[in-house]
């Protein structure tokens, strides 16, 4: 419950009427008939009171928190409410400049939503609205896509701005500190002095050299070798006098005892991996295939319920889990291994906080343990099915510095890995389920899946999986391509692209977005896209993606209709040559096979009837027969061509007629 | 002086009190439900011992049988393992024996083992005799302790001894040690779903 102190300086307030609200407790027209709505706005008000000048309010909020947790029902009457709609405005304050559509701010909001750890924070739907509705529209996306790499460094600095100084969420005591999270201010100073001091420029040069080396040679290096180069570079810099002096003196004015090696290595990893991301993430077809198969595997396991995993009823909290789902889906939005690990860390903390709350309300004598946590994490993973799962796992485990894997985020990474491995390998015995029922459910589901794939590119099985997930997102490139016009919803609420590797047809993409924007502006909703990675233009890089479209009732904020589509590269006809895999025309081949089978069966019938009248099918005293023998005597069935079979059949038929006549 | 970092993996059936044991050691609390911010599953403890600065990272694992096969993902690279059973529950002691077998198979002699018979405050309900447990521990090269997280008995001794033995065993994992080979490759071999290979 210390989440408030760690929300940092970035605050967004949602407002139904398009104006900006400052401060914490806002009296707005209430909608007393809609309890759910009131709750949402209440929790939102609670969390987001911390404005720039709002330290005292934060304190006040902290003081109020115990009361809030024990008495949720009381709050709505005190607080008033506001309707939450897609048409929201976002206020950023604190260390950030005024809100613009500049990517930095966008990322800021994004990262802030990713680090929230207070269970009383925004519901996922409101966060999703904030995160997506402020994304720049088509033209500015393209601008951002073409940002040079050096500008991406700002992404990092903005990211760190949004973090508070020095602590992980909810780890208050010194004994429990973790070096996982780098204080934002340190990274900012690092970036600043990298440009401004001679020593810094020397280090910058070394980093640039490494990047240049990668750009030239990365295709020749194995994955592990690439990581080894990066880690060796970092390890060298912190011991090499030429560079280490720079790091040593960098933060002296904060605290002389500061572990500059530790922090320096973190800064280096962050800045290097931001630049290398496009070369090191998602490299080969094998990983794409692994992603796809895991994706389908999780899809086929969507029937798993909390009972199957023995999650006690008291822990079931769909609102919280939706928040975690939303969080976990952000995984692909982060570029560096460190940020990805923090994304997972946040998910885990959210779940743990939920468990702690349940247990403390219960007043029992036990603390939440990993025994309670892991089944829930697995269940959320099944519900979320984040795209590019295997690629992300590999990327994180390979490129995160091994020494960091010992720390707290490493622990939660391993928990995540365990959850994934469990899902990959589970069978009926790993669940509390009747084996026969398991078998049936599995097969039902794979049939559904098969059907979806053959029918076309659309499936709506996501809905089942994401039930209760209030957020909405749409993967757009594929929608634009393969969604039949009549299936396109009239109203696109949000458009979100997830996944990092994509081939985009700019024109189509822009057209699509433009359509969405105009219709939505008319409808008063927002369309946004996030995290388009421009460099991935290789058609091979299309991984499984998901398409989710939901409509939202503008008054209540509830979902009234949802379509969720799953699409993978196989079903995407976009930009792929028609005859990519096989030189055969499939239909012809199929027809031919069918013909052969038919002819074979005819031959069999005739042979059988010839036998039944006990006459040898082989005729040697006849010219035709000898020819036939010569030609077909030593041939195996598979050597026969379609023509051969036809000829053979004709011969048999004539023989048969001859027999008949006799 | 470089700080030595040790990873201790915590194994034990659910409800034997393994989490309480670590919370008692790292936080000196017992089931402090008021302090909801304490993350019980991963704990750090810094200490000075024999002139060394040491950072212990204690990794809790899920005790359910259905996650048993995934244990290696957790205990790879561990310097020490703390196996906890409940002295009033014979099954939990049998589980400990299974884990010991598995750890020895996977990690050989590289891992330092400590076995804790927890809930020693419930002495009158004891079903696993101390002699039997100590004999078993000696057999497998582990050290046995009677602990009570509730009464804070035997906990410090246990961790101190474990740390000393890890220190004696070498403690290879110092921070920021130059990397020779990337060690974390387990996720790259996605075909190897059998978790046993992860630390092979």
Automatic annotation (TrEMBL), chain A:
InterPro entries found in the cross-reference section: VPS9 (IPR003123), Vps9-like (IPR045046), VPS9_dom_sf (IPR037191)
Alphabetized Pfam families for the sequence: VPS9
Transmembrane segments: none
Superkingdom to which the source organism belongs: Eukaryota
Domain VPS9: 288-432
GO CC terms of this entry: cytosol; endocytic vesicle
SMART domains: VPS9
Biased composition (Low complexity): 80-96
Extent of Basic and acidic residues compositional bias: 54-67
Biological-process GO terms, alphabetical: vesicle-mediated transport
GO molecular function, one term: small GTPase binding
Residues covered by region (Disordered): 45-103
Protein name in UniProt: VPS9 domain-containing protein
Organism: Planoprotostelium fungivorum
TrEMBL record, chain B:
Keyword Glycosyltransferase: no
A biological process from GO: protein transport
Gene Ontology cellular-component terms listed: endomembrane system
Keywords recorded for this protein, A-Z: GTP-binding, Lipoprotein, Membrane, Nucleotide-binding, Prenylation, Protein transport, Transport
UniProt topology in membrane: Lipid-anchor
Pfam families: Ras
SMART domains (UniProt xref): RAB, RAN, RAS, RHO
Cellular localisation: Endomembrane system
An annotated Gene Ontology molecular function: GTPase activity
Annotated family: Belongs to the small GTPase superfamily. Rab family.
Name of the protein: Ras-related protein Rab-21
Species in which this protein is naturally found: Planoprotostelium fungivorum
